[in-house]
Design brief:
The complex is a heterotrimer of chains A (321), B (157) and C (502).
Chain A lengths: L1 H29 L6 E5 L6 H17 L3 E5 L6 H9 L6 E7 L1 H8 L10 E16 L7 H10 L5 E5 L4 H13 L4 E5 L2 H9 L5 E5 H6 L4 E6 L24 E8 L5 H15 L2 H10 L2 E5 L1 H22 L2
Parallel strand pairs in A: 1-2, 1-3, 5-6, 5-7
Antiparallel strand pairs in A: 3-9, 4-7, 4-8, 4-9, 4-10
Chain B lengths: L4 H24 L13 H23 L13 H24 L1 H16 L4 H22 L13
Chain C lengths: L2 H12 L2 H19 L5 H12 L4 H26 L8 H12 L3 H35 L3 H13 L1 H4 L4 H16 L1 E2 L6 E2 L5 H4 L4 H19 L17 H22 L6 H15 L11 H17 L1 H7 L5 H12 L6 H6 L1 H30 L6 H20 L2 H19 L5 H23 L6 H4 L1 H35 L1
The chains are: A alpha/beta (321), B mainly alpha (157), C mainly alpha (502).
């Protein structure tokens, strides 16, 4: 009898401790975030991804009630940072900016240290549609003329872009396929050298990011925007769809966490980022800089990435023959 | 073995040529990029080949020259080599320690170690230098420049 | 539309105490990060970027710009005093300046470098003030073939940097080019020579390479020699004499022009122009035999040119919003964070702001001169600190500097590795400077070549049919031929000297 009581007391104590611990654990989860969060940027300070992080930083601190530390892991076109992301502890204290199509195309091209599926998107908040542009004094007044010219002299019209197997390159390849022509794609090492060469007339046309093109709106003519709708920065420029080419290419920016991050943490971050993304003031600032504001949550972003992965897989097959 | 300039030049020429072979071989495995006129392996391959030729030329030319009075390579004496080895080990230790304990703690240990190992100075001077360096690191690097240096298990720094 | 009246307005604004204060803060911060090896203006501007949101655009951008050109002043200090260049642009300074320090003339060298920085930097700002709109077109004239021709001209400098042994210099340059190939191909993104390492995929940055080749190997050499005092000379001068200034005057002005014009070309960093200025001065100098043994005019030329390049880089930034290098890219980010978009529109919509910034650069250069000249005596005394103490501190600061670039311990291991490489190169008499030059130029050289070939669809003729490119090709040829002739001459002269010494 005595032993029985002893046992009972023992189990009681164990049970209480356990449930307390569990409760404590749950409380700790509820309390997320309870320490500063590191926001990893995989591109250089001052670049688009960094500026977005800096814009969100004070608002995130206000919503989450914790300090947000912006940190950089630059290299390999972002791959270095993303391979660190998927290897980090999934506790929500390391979040990392992501770019589409980079996170889809890089693992497709070679072993990069992460897989697209390993990256868990929290939200997508910014789109940079690509657009095909020529200089104001260029002989090509519209898309049709450019395509006709390319038909007449295949491979002689040069289109500049940033990198190969990148959004710009793929947009060029898709246009080639859709229009049945051949361009001469000249890759550059980034947006700055690309724009320099374009403004200097060293390439005939470029596929540029909307924000870069907006900067030079006075000296260029946009022939086509690779988005579903017309881009507000160039309301007179038709979309490729209007011209009969089903070509949509953009660079989407968002935020991600490591695989296996607990659901509550994910939800909390998602809510915070969506609240910022839907803020009209933030959206206004983005538009002024030439970006299209987005507000896609976790599920929507994941579906978007999956959809784009399928599209790029088909294109990659074509490239690698 | 490589006591004088002549043998040193032959050795380094051979080494560079071998390095060139390694580079050339490694270049052949570089993937093809998407599009473009030239394969991404073009430059590394050419450079590897040039290194083979250049290194080989250095080795062969030196070997064919008259062995006359070649200058000695200023290798360290025994004690110098010992100090060199200690310094290298110390540097590696410092980097390792920084990874584990953060830069402030590791620098606090490294500075006096270096001063006392390579000079004949008292404890007082060595440790005051350590305090000075750490204070400077803290004020300038962490406070003023806001660098996020690793702090190891001491997050209060 | 009169530049003078705009400039006067700009000065009126720039001289307001508030703006002046931030110019001063920027100058001090710039000098500081310039002096600290490894830390550069890019990191400093990036660090201060979030703080600037608390300020108005004018003082914030004045401060960030001051950090950029201020860092060029500080960069020479450690190169001259302890043979440790903090960034690639001070490598030629170290070659001459350290020799001067060993001769007890470290103080004058520091003084001359501050004066040359001031004169050439101001010259650059004058160019920015009056010729920016006209010269801005020049920045755009450079397409891929021109860049390739420019890098070839740069590589041809290896001949004059190699000292006596061209062969070893070329091998050293080859090693540098190869080092720069490691990582992802800048255009295709394909991994090259990474041997399966993800760390190597990001490439080896040139800051850890320079830290290793110079700082770490310098420390190893001194340790093994049981060095105590770096300065063996008894007679020490603290400040430059009028004679020094008079002798280096021409070099300063020439390098100011050279630096400014090359600074107009986006992507042509101060590191490239400082090597070019060094080479040019070697040709112009009345006593080329002093080069490599402590030539004061080389110090003036190198330091002058990198400051003028810094000023020149603002031309494409203001005219088109095109950043010349990483530091100016961050500065551009600063503009955009204020909702300002540098380019022709900003020039028309907010001329006041731009002219305030330009005016502040004149003031900033004066501040830097006043700040740096009195410091010269103080810095120069650094050479009196016994090596064990100085060495320990240099190690700490350089390694943290190398770390702070990418927050990566991998970079520190690379610095140590290249420390070993640098040590061996010293012992085996391989010149180090060509390797640094090659690392700096490699990526631009390869990508511009690939782009040119794509543009011409496989034909090499493109380099000779475009006028600017053809001129640079001709200059390259000239540089190679005259370089070899000069070397021959110097060799025979040296033999004479050695004989007469004996």
């Amino acid at each position: 009898m005595k032993r029985m009581t002893q046992r009972l007391v023992f189990f009681l104590i164990v049970g209480v401790t356990f449930s307390l611990a569990l409760g404590g654990y749950a409380a700790a989860q509820d309390k997320y975030p309870s320490k500063p969060i590191t926001y990893l940027v995989t591109f250089n300070p001052g670049g688009q991804s960094d500026r977005e992080a800096r814009r969100q930083q004070p608002l995130l601190e206000k919503i989450l009630g914790q300090k947000i530390l912006v940190d950089y892991k630059v290299g390999g076109g972002g791959a270095l940072g993303w391979s660190e992301l998927v290897r980090s502890k999934p506790d929500g204290y390391l979040i990392c900016g992501i770019n589409i199509p980079h996170i889809i195309l890089q693992p497709m091209q070679q072993e990069t240290g992460y897989k697209t599926e390993q990256i868990v998107p929290v939200a997508l908040f910014q789109r940079t549609p690509l657009a095909l542009a020529v200089l104001k004094d260029s002989p090509y007044k519209n898309l049709k003329e450019l395509v006709e010219a390319a038909k007449a002299k295949p491979g002689e019209i040069s289109i500049g872009g940033s990198g190969t197997f990148s959004g710009h390159h793929i947009a060029t390849l898709r246009l080639q396929k859709l229009a049945g022509v051949k361009f001469n794609y000249v890759p550059f090492t980034g947006a700055a050298p690309q724009m320099t060469a374009f403004l200097g007339g060293h390439v005939n046309a470029i596929f540029g990011n909307s924000d870069d093109l907006v900067k030079h709106a006075d000296t260029i003519r946009v022939l086509g925007t690779a988005d579903e709708t017309r881009f507000f920065g160039f309301p007179d420029a038709p979309t490729f769809k209007e011209g009969g080419y089903d070509l949509v290419e953009a660079i989407d920016r968002g935020i991600a966490v490591p695989p296996n991050t607990p659901e509550p943490v994910l939800k909390k971050l998602e809510a915070a980022f969506l609240q910022i993304a839907k803020d009209p003031e933030i959206q206004g600032q983005m538009k002024k800089e030439g970006f299209v504001p987005l507000a896609m949550g976790h599920a929507e972003s994941k579906a978007h990435i999956a959809k784009m992965t399928e599209i790029y897989r088909e294109i990659a097959k074509d490239i690698k023959k | 073995m490589v006591a004088n300039r002549r043998s040193a030049d032959i050795a380094s020429g051979v080494f560079l040529a071998l390095l060139g072979v390694v580079v050339f071989a490694a270049s052949t495995t570089i993937d093809e990029g998407a599009g473009g006129q030239l394969h991404p392996r073009t430059f590394p391959m050419i450079l590897g080949a040039m290194l083979v030729l250049g290194g080989g030329a250095l080795a062969v030319r030196t070997a064919l020259s008259r062995p006359g009075s070649a200058k000695a390579v200023p290798w360290p004496d025994r004690n110098g080599a010992r100090l060199l080895f200690i310094a290298l080990a110390g540097l590696c230790g410092y980097v390792l320690l920084s990874q584990l304990l953060g830069f402030l703690v590791s620098s606090f240990l490294f500075v006096p170690w270096f001063i006392r190992t390579f000079g004949r100075y008292g404890h007082f001077l060595a440790w005051s230098c350590a305090v000075g360096v750490v204070l400077f690191l803290y004020v300038v690097f962490i406070r003023l420049l806001q660098l996020s240096l690793p702090t190891g298990p001491f997050p209060f720094f | 539309m009169d530049a003078w009246s705009f400039l006067l307005d700009g000065f009126a604004a720039a001289i307001r105490p508030y703006n002046l204060l931030f110019a001063l803060i920027g100058c001090i911060a710039g000098t500081l990060v310039g002096v600290l090896p490894g830390l550069g203006p890019t990191a400093a501007i990036a660090m201060l970027l979030p703080l600037t949101t608390l300020l108005d655009p004018a003082p914030a951008i004045i401060m960030m710009a001051a950090i950029y050109y201020g860092a060029m002043y500080g960069g020479s200090t450690t190169s001259i005093l302890v043979n440790i260049p903090g960034e690639a642009s001070s490598v030629p300074t170290a070659m001459e300046g350290y020799q001067l320090t060993l001769q007890g003339r470290g103080g004058p060298a520091l003084g001359i470098s501050a004066i040359a920085s001031f004169v050439a930097g101001t010259l650059g700002v004058v160019g920015l003030t009056f010729f920016a709109p006209t010269l801005a077109r020049a920045a755009l004239a450079f397409g891929p073939p021109e860049y390739f021709a420019l890098t070839l001209l740069g590589i041809s400098l290896v001949i004059s940097l190699s000292g006596r042994s061209i062969g070893k210099g070329l091998l050293s340059a080859l090693l540098g080019l190869l080092t720069a190939m490691i990582g992802l191909d800048p255009l295709s993104g394909v991994a090259r020579l990474t041997f399966g390492s993800y760390q190597l995929m990001a490439g080896i940055d040139f800051v850890p390479i320079i830290m290793g080749l110079f700082a770490v190997s310098e420390i190893l050499t001194n340790v093994e020699a049981k060095a105590d005092l770096l300065l063996r000379e008894k007679k020490i001068e603290w400040l430059p004499s009028w004679r020094d200034i008079k002798e280096t005057w021409g070099a300063t002005i020439r390098s100011g022009f050279l630096g400014f014009f090359f600074g107009l070309i986006p992507g042509c960093s101060p590191a490239v122009t400082s090597f070019m200025a060094y080479d040019m001065e070697k040709r112009f100098s009345k006593h080329p035999e002093r080069f490599g043994k402590g030539a004061m005019d080389a110090v003036a030329a190198v330091e002058g040119s990198n400051n003028a390049t810094a000023s020149g880089g603002f031309v494409p930034l203001f005219a088109f919003g095109i950043p010349s290098g990483p530091a100016l890219a961050v500065l551009l980010g600063g503009f955009i964070m204020f909702g300002l978009q540098p380019g022709p529109r900003l020039m028309q919509e907010q001329p006041q702001l731009l002219w305030t910034i330009i005016a502040s650069m004149y003031i900033g250069n004066v501040i830097l001169l006043i700040l740096n000249l009195p410091l010269v005596g103080l810095w120069a005394r650094m050479a009196l600190v016994p090596f064990p103490i100085l060495g320990s501190m240099i190690t700490v600061f350089t390694l943290i500097g190398a770390y702070s670039l990418r927050y990566s311990f991998f970079d520190l291991w690379m610095a140590l590795l290249f420390g070993g490489v640098g040590y061996l190169m010293r012992k085996l008499e391989f010149p180090v400077a060509p390797m640094v030059l090659a690392v700096v130029l490699a990526s631009m050289m390869e990508t511009s070549f690939m782009q040119s070939i794509t543009m011409s669809r496989g034909s090499l003729v493109i380099f000779f049919t475009r006028p600017i490119s053809a001129v640079f090709m001709a200059l390259t040829l000239l540089s190679v031929v005259t370089g070899i002739l000069l070397l021959r001459k110097a060799r025979s002269k040296n033999i004479e000297l050695e004989e007469s010494d004996a």
